[in-house]
Amino acid sequence: MDHQTQTLREKVIQAKLPEELEEKLLGLLERLNFALKVGAAASYGFYEQTVAYVEWALSLPWNRRSEDVLDIKRAKVIFDRNHYGLDTLKKRILEYLSVIILQKKAQGVTPADSTPPNFTSLKKGETKQEGLLRAPILCFVGLVGTGKTTMAVSVAEALNRQLIRIPFGGLASALDLRGLSRIHPEAEPGIIVKSLRRVNVKNPVILLDELDRVSDERRQEIMGVLVELLDPEQNKAFTDHYLDYPFDLSEAIFVATANNVNKVATAVLDRMEIIQMPSYTDEEKMHIGKEYILPKALQEAGLTADNLKIDDGLWPVLIRPLGFDAGIRTLKRITQGVVRRVAWKILNGEGDKFVVNTQNYREFLD
Predict the structure, then answer these.
(1) Three-state SS string across 298-327, please?
(2) Spatial separation of the C-alpha atoms in residues 62 and 57, rounded to whole Å
């Protein structure tokens, strides 16, 4: 047995893998060793294929998970810091966290407080029973710029979980999710397994972003994979075509977003709780612009509040440049443009303090 194959064999034995998977990998390495002896491995590419597969299997977080931080007060601070308004929506998510905390207390588990991230692994042969701790699958539905994706990010931050984002607008087929079988020369795992390897925990928050943007040609097959992902009776044994071994996704929290649900399959909708994202009022946008968007834009540009002041009378112009807009993306883009223009003026020696108002705003906007 060559050095790399022997090293992989030792890693498989030492790793805390499911017993059946360990036997499968050891069997593949034995076949590889035999092929090397008879000189068949190189000619058929069997060596590279087997080594790549074993390395992929070893790199996945079969037993590695992050510890949840289930602190209602901390979660509320995070949501209030990241999102202005949306009180009903934030209350719904905090209610969900409350149920999880009470369930863990009933099981004799003390919820973690706001401590640094902590990762745990099970010993070989151990299983962890989560009981009834199954999260509802939240689907945030609303117009562009209303905070659907950032709300999902805040859910992960509040729970202290890793975040996986899967943009459905870029999926070409269901194979992007489920991977390609190893019998194909260009075989590789799907985006689910790739993302699990990247975050290195089995209980992340998985954001299924923009479900309604799936192409019409591939909609049926992609929705079929989604049903498996979202069904707790099926996702505990999700099988990637490349890995060809079930991976337990039951500890992951799924969050979805969509502009509307007209193009989302009924079977998928049945497995989600739809939460409608409200449009922002002009007053809310003004507050978000002044307290959230402008300070962040200044920080990203290396400026301070002393370098730029936006007069209160100008905000209505920035909020509605082309009429009503439900979200805040346009406001964010315009504010960032003003900040960039100020940065350019500072570097050109035109001053270091600027006040933008209704009289001079055209100097700072295209």
Answers:
(1) HHHCCCCCCCEEECHHHHHHHHCCCCCCCC
(2) 9
Q: Tens of pLDDT along 252-281?
A: 989 999 998 988 999 999 999 898 888 888
Determine the Cα–Cα distance for residues 93 and 197; give it in Å rounded to an integer. Answer: 28
- In this structure, the strands spanning 138-141 and 273-276 are parallel
Give the residue from 150, 136, 137, 31 showing the smallest Cα distance to 86. 150
For 45-79, the pLDDT digits (tens) are: 778 888 899 999 999 999 998 988 888 899 899 99
Q: Over the stretch 184-225, which tens digit does the pLDDT of each residue have?
A: 878 899 999 999 999 999 999 999 999 988 888 888 899 999
C-beta of residue 189 within 8 angstroms of C-beta of residue 231:
no
In 200-328, the DSSP E strands lie at 205-209, 238-239, 246-247, 253-258, 273-276, 308-310
Provide the residue type at 138 as one letter.
Answer: L
Q: Do the Cβ atoms of 190 and 242 come closer than 8 Å?
A: yes
CB 148 within 8 A of CB 257: yes
Tokens 């929705």, residue located: 223
